[in-house]
Amino acid sequence: MRQLKYLLVALMLLPFAAFARNAPIHDTDVAVVGNLSAKQVGEAVNRALVGRRWIISNQKGNTLEATQMTRGLMAKVAISWDAQHVTIKYLDSQGLDYEEKDGERYIHGNYNKWIGNLERDLPVFMTRVAAGQ
Prior knowledge:
The protein has 133 residues and is an alpha+beta fold. The protein has one domain (21-130): TATA-Binding Protein (2-Layer Sandwich), CATH 3.30.310. It is built from three helices and eight strands. The protein has helices spanning 2-17, 38-51, 109-130, and strands at residues 22-24, 28-31, 55-60, 63-70, 73-81, 85-94, 99-101, 104-108. The strands form two sheets. A five-stranded antiparallel beta sheet has the order 2-6-5-4-3.
């Protein structure tokens, strides 16, 4: 009887196992802290990316692409900014189990952690740029 109970619980949890490590992709929009120009916001974006070891490429005006490569995993994002906000959007990845299902995009949880780190770092670097540091 006990084995049957464990089997039933396992079967009920099986549909969730496919997404156990995957989560919906978190594209983000970060509000600018302080009274900064778009150029200063761009400086804060660059500092935050370098601080987290993102590789910056294709920088043109107020947009750029950034790539994170860690332990054989790769994620690429597009970042744009102005004097009011910074937008980070998913572009590509390798090894992060990206998939689309029912119109929703899913990816390994590490991707959202990396983006969350940038979300937390950006206001800090904006404050430093505003203070002239």
